[in-house]
Every structure is written in C-alpha cells, then in structure tokens.
Design brief:
Layout lengths: L2 E4 L21 E4 L2 E6 L2 E6 L3 E6 L9 E5 L4 E6 L5 E3 L2 E4 L2 E5 L4 E3 L4 E4 L3 E4 L2 E2 L1 H5 L6 E2 L6 E3 L2 E4 L3
Parallel strand pairs: 1-13, 4-6, 5-7, 6-9, 7-10, 8-11, 9-12, 10-13, 11-16, 12-17
Antiparallel strand pairs: 2-5, 3-4, 14-15
Length: 159
C-alpha cells in the first residue's frame, strides 16, 4: 500500500477559502475506457480498462457527497485542468488506485475520507500520460503552485 503526497512550497490554508462545487465537474475521459454518471449526491466512474485518464474542470467533494471509482484492481489518473484546488469534504472511494493531480492543490478536509482498494496519490505535480498508461514507474514532475494537506482520513482496503 502506498499513499503519497507531493507538495509545493505554498501554505494550504489559502485553499480552504475556495468555494468548491459539491461534486467533480466537467469530467472527460482522455485515455482508457470509463463512463461517468451521477445522481443526487453521488458521482460514479465505471472503468472497464485497466487504466484510464480523466481530465476534470474541478474535483471537489462536498460534505455528505460521494465519488465512487469502480476501477477493478486498475488505476485512474484524475487531472484537474482549472485553477481550482480539490477539496475533499465527503467520501472518495475506489476499488483500485486513484491518482489526483491538481496544480492548485489538494486538501482532504477534517470531514473528508478517502478509501481505496489500491494506492492513493495526491499531487500538485503532473504525470505524463504515456508513462501512466505504460507499465513503467510513474514519475511526477512540473511546478504546481498549490500544496497537498490531509486533515481527514485516508485508508486502503488492504490495511
């Protein structure tokens, strides 16, 4: 099990003032095979390929809301393309690994929970698509302006 946070130099306290959407917005599958559907306070990503890459306009989860990745034992790379930090106040759940890349920052708030069946990687640095999709080791690079912080709970199904 690996939980990795890669941060940049800025304080994460400035991220908490952003008004995040209740659920991730503008998801677009750019590699692999997955469908995105939602109802009420739940967003579900059903992935049929071993790996998938999804670009999002924003990726935040409000209190009491849930995002579920049914990605088998595979991995999903979620990349935020706006200048909005990802703030997790609800539940992020997956059957496999989840990479959450947001140059503006990632905050797991005190009410936030991340429960995965594989690794959870949160970073302000980016991942090369070809590297992620291959079986080679994934390298994080770039210069995100945000930070990554955890005040909530992160668990792995194999814990």
């Amino acid at each position: 099990m690996a939980i990795l946070f890669v941060t940049s130099a800025l304080s994460w306290s400035s991220l908490a003032v952003a008004g995040p959407p209740v659920l991730p917005q503008g998801g677009r599958v750019v590699a692999g095979s997955a469908t995105i559907s939602g109802a009420g306070g739940r967003l579900t990503i059903d992935q049929s390929s071993a790996k998938a890459i999804i670009d999002w306009n924003s990726f935040s989860i409000g209190p009491g809301e849930r995002v579920v990745f049914d990605n088998g034992h595979g991995a999903t790379l979620d990349r935020v393309t706006s200048f909005s930090p990802a703030i997790i106040n609800g539940l992020l759940q997956s059957t496999g690994a989840v990479y959450l890349i947001d140059p503006a920052g990632v905050v797991i708030a005190s009410d936030g929970r991340v429960v995965t069946g594989g690794d959870f990687i949160a970073s302000t640095l980016d991942v090369n698509d070809a590297s992620f999709l291959s079986s080679a080791a994934v390298t994080l690079s770039g210069a995100g302006s945000g930070s990554v912080a955890n005040a909530g709970e992160i668990t792995n199904g194999s814990d």
